[in-house]
Every structure is written in structure tokens, then in C-alpha cells.
TrEMBL record:
Catalyses which reaction(s): ATP + H2O = ADP + phosphate + H(+)
Keyword Isomerase: yes
Location of this chain's protein in the cell: Mitochondrion inner membrane; Mitochondrion matrix, Mitochondrion nucleoid
Keywords noted in UniProt: ATP-binding, DNA replication, Helicase, Hydrolase, Isomerase, Lipid-binding, Membrane, Mitochondrion, Mitochondrion inner membrane, Mitochondrion nucleoid, Nucleotide-binding, Transit peptide
Cross-referenced InterPro entries: DNA_helicase_DnaB-like_C, P-loop_NTPase, TOPRIM_DnaG/twinkle, Twinkle-like
One Pfam assignment: AAA_25
PROSITE patterns assigned: SF4_HELICASE
Keyword Transit peptide: yes
EC number of the protein: 5.6.2.3
Stretches the record annotates as Disordered: 1-33
Designated name of the protein: Twinkle mtDNA helicase
Top-rank taxon, per record: Eukaryota
GO terms, molecular function: 5'-3' DNA helicase activity; ATP binding; hydrolase activity; lipid binding; single-stranded DNA binding
């Protein structure tokens, strides 16, 4: 079986061609009932269900094993059912039964009526998908060869060198069961069931070389959102209480060999820690997160530590002398020493610069990474904003009909294709229309004219870490914030797009003053971005002004609070430049990161719905203050550069 095409270098691809439904968050018509940890505890006590507190979950005896349905659960039974403290969802590690808090309550009621509880069933479509994935995985696994048993010793050495694992011993590869698929030139990592050790799936990793750059491309069976393999977990003894969590299977191998520690790899690397995996990590009293060697891995480690409980987590900070584990092994570094130097995830307080010293040094050394994820479609935006950073609030505005939604969808799509987990809240246009726009931008062509290509592009588009809120029309800010909070926990969302603010103002009753309502909403988004290290892009319509005038920061509807709270202010101007081509251009009128502001033209392609700038026509202008824009535009060949103090 040939490997499927990947989305982009380094992004996950898929095996085979199947269509799946894209995940959406709960509809406002049927909201997911929320439950607090206090309510969960009160319910368990009221039902005489024994439990004890874990780090991320409450532990109880399973409803689905052992005792008869009409008998109370025994405190002497194994506590194999885990209830997530944040969502109320449960997982039984003994039977793999899982469901929502409402499913759990329904099964408890069945026991009281003397009926044996029945685990919530998956859809027939999902069951068939998983069955087919297991069958495909079995076929690939049987064709793959143990890497240490290749007939040609030269081929073995070349293969290990290609993947950078020349220092990884055959004994380590054998222990973890790593194989090699010749036809696809891929390493094969197995996913075995914790119940009966049967093969549930696979991850294949291959190397792509482009110029001097080496990229690792991953593919999984089943698809990524159903692939829940904590690689290496089955090899850890029951008495082990300490664990190192890595973002890559080869790092787990390196850690075991170099330091002899219990180590596992997350199925999606540093992009996501699915809550369904938390029960398997409950038994460890100390967890060290060593997810990679860049700033994004460091930020992910801090977020994951919150899910796992800060009090038991330590973090390995990336640096020149602390690269990712595989690289540390290859360089001959003391891996045990690096692990011992891991920083505690929680501090009661920051009392001196000494505790901040390494953080400050890290930002000075890694200036490019600190500046954030770069856009590939808008290089001129990188020159001004330097990148897309977590924890910031961006305000985006533009005249009615100028293409705000179309532009911001491509702006967000660019980041999403680079692994930025994105949540869209489109209150103005429905999700079908929005997805059509984004798919057209993703494919770079009119798929209406090439319907035979639809499945191919839709399959690739589905692999993006992209989710949609199913809200439409006016919404209450609390409902929206609650949904965003749920998405951050479940899917590790790091970018939320809200289109637009005006659709949330009709539901606010805190004041008859619409300006006060807007200030409250902007403040809520600002707080959410900071508290959750999540970037929020908020679209706000401009106030009614003379069509002949260009928009300014003061043109944003409402009071000055929106522009004051924002880290970045972007304006889509719908005017022809005096000194250059292009009807529309993007203006950066505020940039809190380093102060650079400016404008650049946009070229719109109707066929691909793309605003990607034409490099040959771009004339980047930097200005100290936005009121200098008009003056600079009329200067022949004028180009100013400035920094805000």
C-alpha cells in the first residue's frame, strides 16, 4: 500500500482515501451540559460510589466489570474507571468503555434498576472505519521487517543514518518493536491494545529532503484524531512512578537507551494532548515533559502541564545544550543530567530575577522563535508583525464588502497548515460557506470546475487541526467563552478567530450602553487570551465614516478600549495606492511586540479567493505613527522605518 500525500512538509498525511466528518463544537441549540468537579463529587457520594482524587481525574471502580448490576460498587474492587475533572467524561481502562458524564449517570441508573450497564456504542461508520484501519495496519505490519534483521547490513546502516538513529542500538529498536517498510522507506511504530496486546494501529514516519532541509512526514492508521497511542506505555512496569513525556517516538527510544528512564511519546507530538489519554498517566507521581527543541514545544509543555497537574510536572527547557532527546544522544550529551535540571512547572511566586534569568536568556537566544509562527502566504506581514504569537489579541477591521472574512480565513488557514490548532467562530456566515472559501484557498483553484479533484483536496483539508463553532447569528459572550474554554482543553486550540464582535452585543444586558457592552466583551477576550496562552483574532466592523476617507485605528466601532487592549491592529484598506498598484492593501497600525507598523498591497485572485501578496509588486512602508501614512504614500519612492518607543 502506497503512502498517501501529505498536507505540507512535516504535516500528517493519511493512508488510503476515505471521507470523514469534520469535528464541530456543540451547537447552541443543543449545548453540551457542563458539570463542575463539585457536582461530580456530590453525585458520586449520593450514589454510594467510592472514589478518590487523582491528578486530572477521579478514580472509581468500573461500572462495566465484576459486580452484578444490582450490587453496590465495592471499595475493594480495582479503581479502573476515570472521570475527567474538567469535562466529566469517563474512560474505563479495563474495558475501554468511554462516554460523557450523562452516559455515566445513565449507566448508574441502570445498575440501580438491576440492569447490567452497557458501554456507549460507537456509530456503525466509526466501527467500520476502525475495523478497516486495524486490517490495513495488520497488512502493513506483516510486510514490515524488523530494522535489525534487514538482510543487507549496509542497508541497515544507511536507513539508520537517514533517520538520524545511528546511535540507537538494535536492542532498543527490538524492545520497542520498531520495524521498517521498504516499499515506503518508512519506519513503522506499532500501537498495541492495553487489554490484549493486539495490534490497533500504526504510525509510519518517512524522511523528505528538500535542498539542505530534512523533514519527517508522519502518517497514521487510524487517522490522527482516532490515533491514541502513547508509544512505549506497554513497556513500563506497574511499579514505575516517574515518567518522561516526549513529542516523538524516536525521542522515547533515545531516552530509554541513554538514561534508562520510563518514557512515552505523545501521538500528535507537541500539537495536542487529548484528554482521553490522561487516565493512562494518572499512576505517575512525577512527569517530566521534554517535547522538543523549539519555543513552540516549550509553550506546549507548559500548557500540557496544566492538564496533567502542575504539582507533579517538571519541564526541560530547550537550549543549545538541551536539544531534543535524540539529538542529545547523537551529540553524546549527558541525558540524565539534563533530566535532573528540569524546572518545576509551578512556583508559588517569582521572587527575584534569578528565577526569570533562564527565561530571559532563552528569549534573547531564540529571537526568531519568540517572534512566533511565520506566515508563508504573507511574507510582508512577517516583516511587520514578525510572527503569530500565543496570548495576544489582534483586532481586524475593514470597510463593508472589502473581503474581511475572505482575507482572515486565508490568514488563519496559512497558520493552521503549519500546525497551529485553530477554532473558527463565524457568526456572520455559516460554516459550509466558510469551509468552501477555505477549501478553495487551500487547493488554490476553483474546485467547481474540477469536481473530480474534490475528494483528494477534501481528504487533505480534513487533516488540518481546524475546528468550527456551530454558532450563527447573535450569541451570548458567556456561551462563546465557555465553548472556547472547552475547545482549548479538548483540542489544545492556540488560535481563535471570532467573526465578528457586533454579533455578540445584542445579547448583553449589563448596560443599555452599547459601548459599555463592547468594552466588556473585548475585556473578556483579552483575559481569555492571556489566561489560556491563546491568540484571539477579533473582527470588528468600523464606524460609519465618509467613504472617501481611509480607515484609521480610531475608525474601529466603539470606544478606545478595543485598540488599547489589542496587541495588534490590522486594517484592510479598500483604496488604490497613490504610488503603487493594488486596490486593497493591509495596514498594520499597532504592533505591541516591537512597534513596527506599515502597509503593503494585496493582490486578490478570484479563482483561488486568495489575497497572497505579489512579491514583485510589494513596496513595504514602515511608519512611526499611522498619521504619517498619507504623507509617506505621496513621496516618490518614499520608505520610512521607525520603532515605537
Amino acid at each position: 500500500m502506497a503512502l498517501g500525500a501529505s498536507l505540507s512538509p512535516g504535516a500528517p498525511g493519511r493512508l488510503g482515501q476515505r471521507r470523514y466528518k469534520k469535528d464541530v463544537l456543540p451547537s447552541p441549540d443543543r449545548p453540551a451540559p457542563s458539570v463542575s468537579i463539585t457536582e461530580i463529587r456530590q453525585y458520586l457520594r449520593a450514589q454510594d460510589i467510592p472514589f478518590h482524587d487523582g491528578y486530572s481525574c477521579l478514580h472509581t471502580p468500573s461500572l462495566f466489570t465484576g459486580d452484578r448490576g444490582d450490587q453496590p460498587l465495592s471499595a475493594n474492587a480495582p479503581f479502573t474507571l476515570f472521570i475527567d475533572k474538567t469535562t466529566g467524561s469517563f474512560l474505563c481502562t479495563a474495558t475501554l468503555a468511554e462516554g460523557t458524564w450523562q452516559d455515566f449517570q445513565a449507566n448508574v441508573e441502570m445498575r440501580h434498576r438491576g440492569i447490567t450497564p452497557i458501554p456507549p456504542a460507537s456509530s456503525e461508520e466509526m466501527e467500520e472505519e476502525m475495523r478497516q484501519a486495524r486490517e490495513d495496519a495488520r497488512c502493513i505490519w506483516e510486510r514490515a521487517l524488523p530494522l535489525w534483521e534487514l538482510l543487507d547490513e549496509k542497508e541497515t546502516k544507511e536507513t539508520k543514518a537517514l533517520f538520524g538513529i545511528s546511535q540507537v542500538s538494535n536492542a532498543t529498536l527490538k524492545r520497542f518493536g520498531v520495524r521498517y517498510l521498504r516499499t515506503a522507506r518508512s519506519l513503522v511504530f506499532p500501537w498495541f491494545s492495553p487489554q490484549d496486546a493486539t495490534l490497533k494501529g500504526l504510525k509510519l514516519v518517512r524522511v523528505e529532503k528538500k535542498g539542505g532541509t530534512i523533514t519527517y512526514v508522519e502518517e497514521t492508521l487510524p487517522r490522527f484524531d482516532s490515533y491514541r497511542n502513547l508509544f512505549g506505555l506497554s513497556l513500563i512496569g506497574r511499579r514505575d512512578t516517574e515518567l518522561v513525556l516526549t513529542g516523538w517516538e524516536l525521542d522515547a527510544l533515545a531516552l530509554h537507551q541513554a538514561a534508562g528512564v520510563a518514557s512515552v511519546a505523545l501521538p500528535r507530538g507537541a500539537s495536542c494532548l487529548p484528554p482521553t489519554l490522561l487516565p493512562y498517566l494518572e499512576r505517575f507521581k512525577r512527569i517530566t515533559l521534554w517535547l522538543g527543541e523549539d519555543l513552540r514545544s516549550w509553550e506546549a509543555a507548559k500548557l500540557f502541564a496544566r492538564k496533567l497537574s502542575l504539582k507533579r510536572c517538571s519541564l526541560v527547557r530547550p537550549g543549545n545544550l538541551q536539544p531534543r532527546p535524540l539529538e542529545a544522544l547523537n551529540q553524546g550529551l549527558n541525558v540524565t543530567k539534563i533530566l535532573r535540571s528540569a524546572l518545576l512547572a509551578s512556583h508559588k511566586s517569582i521572587v527575584s530575577f534569578r528565577q526569570l534569568r533562564e527565561e530571559v536568556f532563552g528569549e534573547l537566544v531564540n529571537t526568531e522563535q519568540v517572534s512566533g509562527v511565520k506566515w508563508t502566504r504573507f511574507p510582508e506581514l512577517n516583516k511587520l508583525l514578525k510572527g503569530h504569537r500565543r496570548g495576544e489579541l489582534t483586532i481586524f477591521t475593514g470597510p463593508t464588502g472589502s473581503g474581511k472574512t475572505t482575507f482572515i480565513s486565508e490568514y488563519a488557514l496559512d497558520l493552521c497548515m503549519q500546525g497551529v490548532c485553530t477554532l473558527w467562530g463565524s457568526f456572520e456566515i455559516n460554516n459550509v460557506r466558510l469551509a468552501k472559501i477555505m477549501l478553495t484557498q487551500f487547493a488554490g483553484r476553483r474546485l467547481e470546475d474540477q469536481l473530480e479533484l474534490y475528494d483528494e483536496w477534501a481528504d487533505r483539508f480534513e487533516e488540518l487541526p481546524l475546528y468550527f463553532m456551530t454558532f450563527h447569528g447573535q450569541q451570548n459572550i458567556k456561551t462563546v467563552i465557555d465553548t472556547m474554554q472547552h475547545a482549548v482543553y479538548m483540542y489544545d486550540i492556540t488560535h481563535v478567530v471570532v467573526d465578528n464582535l457586533q454579533f455578540m452585543m445584542g445579547h448583553e444586558h449589563i448596560s443599555v450602553d452599547r459601548l459599555a457592552a463592547q468594552d466588556y466583551i473585548v475585556g473578556a477576550f483579552r483575559k481569555f487570551a492571556t489566561d489560556n496562552m491563546c491568540h484571539i483574532t477579533l473582527i470588528i466592523h468600523p464606524r460609519k465614516e465618509d467613504d472617501e476617507k481611509e480607515l484609521q485605528t480610531a475608525s474601529i466601532f466603539g470606544s478606545a478600549k478595543a485598540s488599547q487592549e489589542a496587541d495588534n491592529v490590522l486594517i484592510l484598506q479598500d483604496r488604490k495606492l497613490v504610488t503603487g498598484p493594488g486596490k486593497r492593501y493591509l495596514q498594520v497600525s499597532k504592533n505591541r511586540f516591537d512597534g513596527d507598523v506599515g502597509i503593503f498591497p494585496l493582490d486578490f485572485s478570484k479563482a483561488s479567493l486568495s489575497f497572497s501578496s505579489s512579491k514583485s509588486k510589494v513596496r513595504l512602508k514602515k511608519m512611526k505613527e499611522e498619521k504619517e501614512i498619507l504623507a509617506n504614500k505621496i513621496v516618490e519612492g518614499g520608505s520610512g522605518t521607525s520603532k515605537k518607543p
